[in-house]
Amino acid sequence: MADTNPITPVVAEGSDVSIEKSKNADKNEAKRLAKMEKFLAKQKAAAEKSKAAPAAKEDKKAKPEKAAAAAPEPEFVNTTPKGEKKDMSEPMAATYNPKAVEAAWNDWWEKEAFFEPELTAEGKVKEEGLFVIAAPPPNITGSLHTGHALAVSIEDGLARWNRMLGKTVLFNPGTDHAGISAQAVVEKMLWKESKQTRHDIGREDFVKKIWDWKDVYQARINNQVRRLGASYDWTREAFTLSESLSKAVTETFCRFHEEGIIYRATRLVNWCSELNTALSNLEVDNKELTGRTLMNVPGYDAKEKFEFGVLISFAYPVEGSDEKIIVATTRIETMIGDTAVAIHPKDERYKHLHGKFVIHPFSGRRIPIILDDIVVDMAFGTGAVKMTPAHDFNDYEVGKRHNLEFINILNDDGTLNNNCGEFSGMKRFHARVAVLKALKEKGLYVETVDNAMTVPVCSKTGDVIEPLMKPQWWVNCKDMAADALQAAKDGRLTIKPQTSEKDYYRWMENINDWCISRQIWWGHRIPAYFVRIEGEEQDFADGKFWVSGRTEAAARESAEKKFAGKKFTLEQDPDVLDTWFSSGLWPFSIMGWPEKTADLEKFYPTSLLETGWDILFFWVARMVMLGIKLTGQVPFSEVYCHALVRDAQGRKMSKSLGNVIDPIDVIEGISLQALHDKLRSGNLDPREIIKAEQGQKMDFPNGIPECGTDALRFCLGAYSAFGKDINLDIMRVDGYRKFCNKLWNATRFALLKFEDGFLPNKTAAKSGRESLAERWILNKLNVAAVEINDQLGQRNFMKATDAIYKFWLYELCDVYIEIIKPITDGNDQAARRSAQDTLYTCLEAALRMLHPFMPFLTEELYQRLPRRDGDKIPTIVKSPFPVNNPEYIDSQADADFELVFAVVRSGRSLMADYNMTKGAQIYIQGSPETAKLLLSEEAGIVTLTKGCKSCKVVGESEQIPDGCASITVQEGCVVYLLVKGMVDVEAEVQKIEKKLAKVQKAYEDLLKKTQDATYLTKVKPEIREMNDAKLKDYEHEITTLTNGMDTFLKLKD
């Protein structure tokens, strides 16, 4: 070549052709995730495009074989007998079908006892270690939702991973009786079916109905978790109301009562009038109001609405004078039970009222004016605060400090009791209206103003919660909390993420005693008995007249000792224990405690507790307290708190919103109409059903596509990052289904490339004859194995799934499988065999790496692969998980192949610059060392550069033809693309000019708007910020188009 290349080298804007690796891991992570999202978006767009395309095209007539291949496959029918291994002799289907893939495997796994803990011949834990998860027991109140699916995906992924690492693994399943929730659901069902209440049919028959409900829904839940692939040891399935677990509950109550840890006292509780029971804080939703709001309340006419979100001021007359003192309240009806007015001792306005009284306007009671510098803020309101200690948690503490009278104004059903004079017998919110009216009539009403406030609402019934004085059983938690806190401080217990650990510390340092009485029928009946002594007047609330017993006979014996010589009868407390009391014993009660069983000795304490952060205090903290107290050991060494699953818009899942997703519906797919039908089969109010259907139409206009279990599990893992809630987009799950299809096709390709009778090498050791691409992919396999093990150990499921996704998609499928196609189709037998062996090694190991996330697909594909000589492992469940293999580490191959791929990227970039999609001719000019390396990779470069016709490596620039564009890859390596005569310059320039004019106009129009004199004052800041970003995008696009046009114009020279 007589002269140098006349065209200035073109470097595509934004492209990075340097082979130097990024030192910023976070940026790399972001790039990988962006690539993943881009892939999913492309898949989605392609799917939509294919739907929109005509059913037939003329050119398809010439290719009947493709039309035949596109014909839908017949509906899959599972013919495998239950518990038998699936027949793998049939050829692989053309495409991935999750229904077919997932069939039969779980039944076979269970029958073969693959999920039961594997012990040594002596019955001991294996030397590789022990991993135990006591699966959090779901409530038997209905179906599982995607939050449960997330928990199962994480827990089972860790169980399968540890099992594959060779450890003795126990993943123990079970369900919770869910006292209040289950009773509320069955009561609704009973009323809906027969218009009866539980009182109409009696305790025994009602409890029997809940047992029947439990059998149905426990079976449904167990089917769901089996469909999700949970590798539970079903031989150890537990239920919190079973005989053995009930024994543990009784033992704990009696032991604590005997030690004085459990005691009886009358205190304020969260009371639900609709359920007639006390509630834990977890069963109370806090409804935030910004001001005056009219609300419906259960138990009242649907047309009635009551006023909330206001502050009502009224006056108390001061005794012996014409003076009045003004107070305010958000619950005006509670003033009937007021027993004090508090003022600040330093408030000069009220100095003259120290020691005085006000007169209650309805009862005439003398109410003391008390001095309190804790509760009263002189600067707030009038500086005077009404006190209702029997109906307000803050006032309760004031009442105890000042020894005030505690006047209860409510019956259990929410009506006003006999302490309320003219208002007695009224429903509480009717009384709210009546009291306000009466105050106005007496001239004591002052004003009503809007007031932002929180209204506590029962999560089961929607009823407004009332603080109510009730005699209950309580647990003194102070000492147990101190021990539980110390376990976290000294490292015996770790809690992830750190935000959850801080919550744990805060709760344990400020713990209150725990109310464990519930006024319902479904649950563990409290093993406490009131000793009714003949001829004596007794207070049912007084703990001194109560005894406990593991049996009634034991309680009688205790009573005879305590009340020697007296005649008495025993009356068992009709209440049941808080569900969290039995759940708090879960990690050791399922092992047989209080008996000293072999399971308790081998498998307790457990390894990990995985749960949602929202029950960290209600459940996790109580398990730690009870575990240390009763067994002397922390029940688990690690707590992992997963995120909350929200909908795609970030809203909390709610039946009334219609966004609660049954994981089976994601696995199997469901139409929009079927989603509507499911709403109507439940207990939702008809008004809520209408709202929920609207929500379903918005979220799932076309229903939910069939995604399969493996895609759902992988997606939930990919979403899981520390401290972040999950906004679940079903289309992203569908994207991972397409990823499953990619794996299916990759394995199918491999099996096609393994000729009949192919037997892989006896081991996965390198032969020493591997090509550069083989050495590179084995190195990448090892990098992925190391990364996945490390991230699973850190419980970073997002990065673990990203590592396996990256290896499968971007390295194995997109690069290695593509680059070996000409080799496996070629005549070089040695090269073909080597490529096959490496493909087998990578494919088999990659399936094992993927198994914790995608159990069904990986088993199906694993069973289809030929096996190495001597490999007798029956299932991927028991196969070894890939770990670091020093033999595969090859940094030189990694660097050399990165140069090859940099050349490929440069060739693709040049082709994109010149809109060249086929027939490309690439030349590479490099230093002698570089040329030697790339000369052997010419065929691979052509394969990986789509649309490339040929690639030639030269040593001198004179060998490059005229009319080439170029990119410098690195010093001593330049890639050239022959463009002269290959593109229609005029047509390309016209395209760019047309697009440039359109963008230029959009830019000028927006710029004109921003230059308007009123722009800064009339346009919101967030809109201005958005417009600024748009202008920058337009400027960037104009620059890019201008540069592109210049590139083409140079070809005219």
TrEMBL record:
Its EC number is 6.1.1.9. Residues 1-29, 43-89 are annotated as: Disordered. Pfam families: Anticodon_1, tRNA-synt_1, Val_tRNA-synt_C. GO terms for molecular function: aminoacyl-tRNA deacylase activity; ATP binding; valine-tRNA ligase activity. Keywords: Aminoacyl-tRNA synthetase, ATP-binding, Coiled coil, Cytoplasm, Ligase, Nucleotide-binding, Protein biosynthesis. Residues 984-1044 form the Valyl-tRNA synthetase tRNA-binding arm domain. Residues 774-921 form the Methionyl/Valyl/Leucyl/Isoleucyl-tRNA synthetase anticodon-binding domain. Residues 982-1009 form a coiled coil. It catalyses: tRNA(Val) + L-valine + ATP = L-valyl-tRNA(Val) + AMP + diphosphate. GO terms for biological process: valyl-tRNA aminoacylation. The keyword Chloroplast does not apply. It comes from the Eukaryota. Residues 18-29, 43-66 have a biased composition (Basic and acidic residues). Residues 105-729 form the Aminoacyl-tRNA synthetase class Ia domain. One of its GO terms (cellular component) is cytosol. It is found in: Cytoplasm; Mitochondrion. NCBIfam families: PRK05729.1 (NF004349), valS (TIGR00422). PANTHER family: VALINE--TRNA LIGASE, VALYL-TRNA SYNTHETASES. Belongs to the class-I aminoacyl-tRNA synthetase family. HAMAP family: Val_tRNA_synth_type1. This is Probable valine--tRNA ligase, cytoplasmic. The lineage of its organism: Eukaryota, Fungi, Fungi incertae sedis, Mucoromycota, Mortierellomycotina.
